[in-house]
Design brief:
By secondary structure, this protein is mainly α. The chain has one domain. It is built from three helices and two strands.
């Protein structure tokens, strides 16, 4: 989570929309880290935890469920 979030914040600083996809277990850590990096409003999309033990079919369903939220986070004006 940390490097993905770091990279997303850096992209936002360069004027490129970015969102970080995390599992529920990392919500607090992601919010704290985004604040430390100077972008507390950085958008995250939260998916179910754990991810590593999911089958490819389960992950595909998770992606289908999250894609709309990802697009919204990348395209909304006021963040």
């Amino acid at each position: 989570m940390a490097w993905g979030l770091h990279d997303s914040v850096e992209m936002e600083r360069q004027g490129r929309p970015a969102v970080t996809v995390i599992t529920q277990a990392f919500e607090t850590a992601a919010a704290m880290r985004a604040g430390v990096l100077g972008l507390p409003e950085h958008p995250t999309v939260v998916v179910d935890h754990p991810l590593a033990s999911r089958t490819p079919a389960d992950v595909e369903k998770m992606v289908d469920a999250a894609v709309g939220r990802i697009v919204t986070a990348l395209t909304e004006e006021a963040r």
